[in-house]
Each structure stands twice: as C-alpha cells, then as structure tokens.
Inverse folding.
C-alpha cells in the first residue's frame, strides 16, 4: 500500500535555530516528492518538488533532500523565523498516476521567540 | 486576487442539510480536485476532473457529488450532510504536466479551504 509517514508529529524550536523534518514513503513506482507548507487556516503551498534524479533542492532557507534508494526525504530549515510556524507536509506521487498525491499527515512546527 | 478561491470559507450546518462548496480558479488549468483534511490525517482525494466532461471519483467519494460547470469552476455537494463530514475542504488545480514522462509532475495549487461543521 502506498504510504507516506512523517516524523516528528510536532516540534518546538527557538527562533534562529535549525531543524530537520523527516519523511519516509513506500510509494512505487516513484515519480516525485514534494514538500508543502500549510499555515493555520490556509491551503498548502509548495516549497519544493523533486523527481527521482534530484537528491537535493533548496528554496531560500528550506533545503530538501531525497534518497530514492532508501525512500527517505528530509526538509531542513535554517535560521528559523516565527513565520516558519506551520505544518509541513510531505507528498509523494507514483509514475502511473502522477496526479494522485499521497499525503503525509504533516509535522507541526512551532517557532518560539 | 487569489488564483484559487473557495466559498464559503466557513459553514456550520445541520445533519441532513444539502451543502454546496464552490471553487473558482484563474490559473487557466484544466485539472481540478477536491480534498478533505481531518486532524492527524493527510489530505484525501474526494473527486477530480481533468476537463469539463471528465469527472472521476477519488478515494473517499461516498456521500459527495461534484459538478464542473466550466473550466474555471468546480463545485462539491454534500446531498445530506452528516457529522463525520465535518472537516476542512480544499480545492486544487493543476495543468496536465508531461503526461507519461518519467519524473513528470503537475504541481497542484490549493485554495484557502472551507471549514465545514455538521452538527
């Protein structure tokens, strides 16, 4: 069964600190992996999208990595800001149905002053 | 103006009532989707449409129906709402992407969501 699991479920860090969120998936055949940021009461917004040939991708202070062999991805946030407080959702799609996204349940991040 | 809009943003209704959630987009995308989000769960696909004449069930379509009135409009209906349909509902759009190409993707753009409460 295609699944996406994220850890931790929630995380609290101090402003300015770094953090890493984890994503494991069992989707096959793999097409691409995305990280979304979802602010409270808002829709998810894409941070990065990586295909099988990409193992790292950066977007400002966000760096995503992908290991297609171990089926793991991470999202590293550098020098966190209060505005980084949100849920971060890992999403994977399969080659045979790339429009059908398999969503993780998200990691809720709280950045405190 | 937002590219993907949803109305209403919040709705409280009673069991048995008919409810319609509406989605409009100005991105010019052919594909539109309806998802629901429940606490502790990932988003789940309810229905999707590749064009005005192509509508497909997602993984949790029971109790829901949809209408694609135009390329830019996709509405979700709950014919007889029940309490376990209380959730956040999101509409999304995408283009067709590179169909069949390995590693292809079609990025989905989400609306702001509708919070529905069924009492």
């Amino acid at each position: 069964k295609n699944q996406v699991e994220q850890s931790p479920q929630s995380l609290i860090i101090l402003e300015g600190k770094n953090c890493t969120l984890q994503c494991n998936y069992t989707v096959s055949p793999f097409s691409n992996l995305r990280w979304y940021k979802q602010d409270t009461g808002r829709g998810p917004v894409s941070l990065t999208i990586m295909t099988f040939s990409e193992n790292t991708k950066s977007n400002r202070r966000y760096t995503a990595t992908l290991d297609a062999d171990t089926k793991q991805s991470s999202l590293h946030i550098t020098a966190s800001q209060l505005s980084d407080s949100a849920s971060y959702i890992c999403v994977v799609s399969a080659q045979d149905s790339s429009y059908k996204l398999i969503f993780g349940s998200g990691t809720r991040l709280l950045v405190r002053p | 103006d937002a590219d993907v809009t949803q109305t209403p943003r919040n709705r409280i209704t009673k069991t048995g009532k008919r409810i319609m959630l509406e989605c409009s987009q100005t991105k010019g995308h052919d594909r539109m989707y309806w998802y629901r989000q429940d606490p502790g769960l990932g988003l789940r696909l309810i229905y999707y449409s590749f064009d005005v004449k192509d509508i497909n069930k997602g993984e949790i379509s029971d109790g829901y129906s949809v209408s694609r009135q135009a390329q830019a409009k996709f509405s979700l209906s709950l014919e007889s709402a029940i309490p376990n349909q209380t959730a956040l509902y999101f509409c999304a759009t995408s283009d067709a992407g590179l169909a069949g190409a390995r590693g292809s993707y079609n990025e989905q753009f989400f609306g702001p969501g509708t919070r529905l409460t069924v009492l």
